[in-house]
Amino acid sequence: MWLFGRKGASGFSASSTAEDVTQGLDGTGLTAIVTGATSGIGTETTRVLALHGVHIVMAVRNMESGRKVKETILNAFPTAKLDVMELDLSSLASVRKFADEFISSGLPLNILINNAGIMAPPFTLSKDNIELQFATNHLGHFLLTKLLVETMKRTSHEQNIEGRIVNVSSEAHRFAYKGMYFDQLNNESSYNPIYAYGQSKLANILHAKELTRHFKVWLIGLANTSSKTSLREQQLHVTSRYTRKSKGSWTPDQEK
Q1: H or E element: which one contains 127?
Q2: 2-182+191-241 falls under which CATH superfamily?
Q3: pTM to 2 decimals?
Q4: Cβ-contact 75, 51 below 8 angstroms
Q5: Whole-angstrom Cα distance, residue 168 to residue 256?
Q6: Average pLDDT over residues 208-228
Q7: CA 169 to CA 115: how far, in whole Å?
Q8: Which DSSP category does 185 fall into?
Q9: Which among 131, 178, 187, 252 is least surrounded, fewest beta carbons within 10 Å?
Q10: Which of the following is catalytic: 177, 181, 191, 242?
Q11: Is 177 designated active site?
């Protein structure tokens, strides 16, 4: 129904902005990591959550761009709590370094928004010799989530607030190869940039579904624990490559 501007079950439609969706939210005391916070969905997510009092850690590849976005938001909202940290999702070493530094900071973690991504580049291998879109869009976020999930569980238990992990996927997941081509990820001769992008977005969805299953299983063994005291389930957020920044303005979600 959202295609026609009508409100769906959530009460929102394609014309709803991020500020509409978060109206009345008080995020004071919450901490969130947003990957790819320097453009598109990532920037708008950072801006609006900061507006509502959430402490945002901007996980970005380009530190200069990150600092510029931070400065812009602070000019509009001087009390916003923003930190910029370097993260190159195409490098597993960079992901591990980011996670180590975040954990060492002692900050809590209520929300992890796996948003950053690249779309349809020529065939390229990552620093770890993995096809770049799959490495950046899926594997980097997969490892980041794995490394930070215990921090999220601990935060949820200590604050008695349910955590959230959001995987930003795309309708392009429908245009993946026929299934997941794990045995041909690095096959340049069969590489199709659009299909490879769709495959990485399908992997985001499968990751979210598997997290949901694991969180439900883990809950069974937690005695005297209500749904509010642990990271109960993965919230899957599937979105198109466009985000409505404000009424009358659409911005493409570009490479982060």
Answers
A1: none
A2: NAD(P)-binding Rossmann-like Domain (3.40.50.720)
A3: 0.82
A4: no
A5: 13
A6: 53
A7: 8
A8: T
A9: 178
A10: 191
A11: no
